Automatic annotation (TrEMBL):
Family matches, as SUPFAM superfamilies: EAL domain-like, Nucleotide cyclase
EAL domain: residues covered: 299-552
Keywords: Membrane, Transmembrane, Transmembrane helix
Stored Pfam families: EAL (PF00563), GGDEF (PF00990)
Keyword Transmembrane: yes
CDD domains according to UniProt: EAL, GGDEF
Organism domain of life: Bacteria
Residue stretches making up the GGDEF domain: 149-290
Regions that span the bilayer: 12-34, 40-57
Protein name: EAL domain-containing protein
Length: 560
């Protein structure tokens, strides 16, 4: 406003000067000049002078504004070079004060937004710890400063955290993560107080995963001591809005340069060790070693080979007969998966199914099994060989919404009566199945499918679910009957389980029966069916059909 007023005064002075000059020249021309030519020249000079003064008065503000706009443009272009700090140029402040103030405010807001975005991009919004990106960047710098010294990585994964989210909600879960982060800060602070040079770096990677990096350690024993501290700190109950929450932590430990010389390799090694700690029950730490490295490499190779095994036709089904202890007859068979590995030969399920479960490939393998069993039973049914076959269903298959429809379609296309198949579900899958899945299983059972629970006795069983679930048979886990011929305690446990299963109206199948003594004890206890090497080893289809025909024709009754 003040600059505009000053400009108006300046222009008025210039215009007055032009008017006075015009008056002065006109007066002189009238008083002293008598010649016409001279008067014309004087009038031209006076007019030109007035025009010059008027031009200066009008152009002066325009040129100032142009210079101000040019300076403003140069300031804005400086943003390309990263200049968000310099204020608006002085000429802009003088000529356009409001615009200058707006530009300064805009740059201040942009700087604040960038700083906020940087903070969001580098720190976890829940715990305020460095996030994965920040951790990797800082840890790389710290690792580069260690020289020939030792460094250590702790990978911390919370146990049973999912239960907290499921029961109390994600908001309470976030509060628990904040409490966990605070306890980890206490452990890290204690390490700093003992040796400031170590400067541990604590971060939350994602979900319930945390990491602690020690750029300088004196010995492996020291970092294992810290890992035990972390496990004890997390094992203490948390008070969460009136709830006492008990969780734990599985901790993997890796050391540089023994287990890797980069942050990526150390994190991978610590992650592998963490999974070993979790497989041991959690609440403890595990140090990475050569055995874990070899096991991990084997899993990686197995995973890679599994992706090609289905398409290359490397899987086969073996059939193990099931014999009734009541009638002595062959009542069916279990289809067991075999992998005809191109380099390793015939591999048992235990060597590759866990990897397939972890990677999700088990669903594709399960689809292959269903297709093969359907084709096999279709041929049997057309030949009049109506023999029941059971096979396992993975929890990963149950996750597919079209699983039951695909199952029905596969057997319908081969003309197989559903009474010829038996589906086996693991104990944990049966107990955790949704009501919708239970309803689908019940519908299949009504259509003739036999339903069995496999490996009973190794997981958690909800007795109410066991009573209400559509169920025909329960298969005892081999670990339950391993010593029944020599251990009184084992016999007591098996007898109790048998009575429990009988109480829900299901038949009992014992797997992995190795000798006649075990079979006799199981028969006395009320076990209905057995399978194992004492009666018949797993065999491929042609051998199985020949074996069954032979047993039926000669010695089925004598075996009982």
């Amino acid at each position: 406003m003040q600059a505009g007023t000053a400009q108006k005064i300046s222009n008025a002075i210039l215009s007055g000067a032009a008017g006075f000059a015009s008056f002065f020249f006109s007066l002189c021309a009238l008083l002293y000049i008598t010649e016409l030519n001279t008067k014309i020249v004087a009038a031209i000079v006076a007019g030109a002078f007035c025009l010059l003064i008027s031009y200066i008065a009008s152009e002066r503000p325009n040129s100032e504004s142009a210079r101000a706009l040019t300076a403003l443009g140069e300031r804005l272009l400086a943003v390309e070079d990263g200049d968000l700090v310099s204020p608006a140029p002085p000429i802009v402040r003088r000529m356009m004060p409001k615009l200058a103030a707006a530009v300064d405010t805009l740059f201040a807001e942009v700087r604040a937004s960038i700083e906020n975005a940087h903070a969001l991009g580098m720190y976890d919004p829940v715990t305020s710890l460095p996030n994965r990106l920040h951790f990797r960047s800082e840890a790389d710098k710290l690792l580069g400063e260690t020289g020939n010294g030792k460094s250590a990585m702790l990978f911390v994964d919370l146990d049973r955290f999912k239960n907290v989210n499921d029961s109390l909600g994600h908001a309470r879960g976030d509060q628990l993560l904040i409490m966990v982060a605070n306890r980890l800060r206490v452990v890290v602070t204690a390490e700093l107080s003992e040796n400031v040079a170590r400067r541990p770096l604590l971060a939350r990677l994602a979900g319930d995963e945390f990491t602690i990096f020690f750029p300088h350690i004196d010995s492996v024993e020291d970092v294992e001591r810290v890992a035990r501290r972390v496990a004890l700190a997390i094992a203490e109950p948390f008070e969460l809005y009136g709830h006492s929450v008990d969780i734990g932590a599985s901790i993997g430990v890796s050391v540089s340069p023994d287990h890797g010389t980069s942050i990526e390799s150390l994190m991978r090694a610590a992650d592998i060790a963490m999974y070993r700690a979790k497989s041991r029950g959690g609440g403890q730490h595990c140090l990475f070693n050569e055995e874990l490295a070899a096991e991990h490499q084997s899993k990686v190779e197995t995973e890679k080979a599994l992706t090609e095994a289905v398409n290359d036709g490397e899987f086969q089904l073996a059939l193990q007969p099931q014999l009734s202890l009541v009638t002595g007859e062959i009542v069916g068979a279990e289809a067991l998966l075999r992998w005809n590995h191109p380099n390793d030969g015939l591999r048992m399920p235990a060597t590759f199914i866990p990897v397939a479960e972890r990677t999700g490939l088990v669903a594709e393998i399960g689809e292959w099994v269903i297709s093969e069993v359907a084709m096999m039973l279709g041929n049997w049914h057309r030949d009049g060989f109506n023999h029941r076959v059971s096979f396992n269903v993975s929890p990963r298959q149950l996750d597919r919404i079209d699983f039951f429809q695909r199952l029905r379609t596969a057997f319908a296309e081969q003309g197989v009566p559903l009474s010829m198949i038996e589906l086996e579900f693991t104990e944990s899958a049966a107990m955790e199945a949704s009501e919708a899945v239970i309803a689908e299983i019940g519908s299949l059972r009504e259509a003739g499918v036999h339903i069995a629970i496999d490996d009973f006795g190794t997981g958690y069983s909800n007795l109410a679910r066991l009573r209400s679930m559509p169920l025909d048979r329960v298969k005892l886990d081999p670990s339950l009957i391993a010593d029944i011929e020599v251990s009184e305690k084992a016999r007591v446990i098996v007898q109790a389980v048998v009575q429990l299963i009988k109480g829900v109206g299901a038949e009992i199948v014992a797997e992995a029966v190795e000798n006649a003594a075990q079979a006799d004890i199981l028969r006395a206890m009320g076990c209905d069916t057995v399978q194992g090497f004492v009666f018949g080893a797993p065999m491929f289809e042609p051998e199985y059909r020949a074996w069954v025909n032979h047993v039926r024709g000669t010695s089925a009754q004598s075996v009982a």
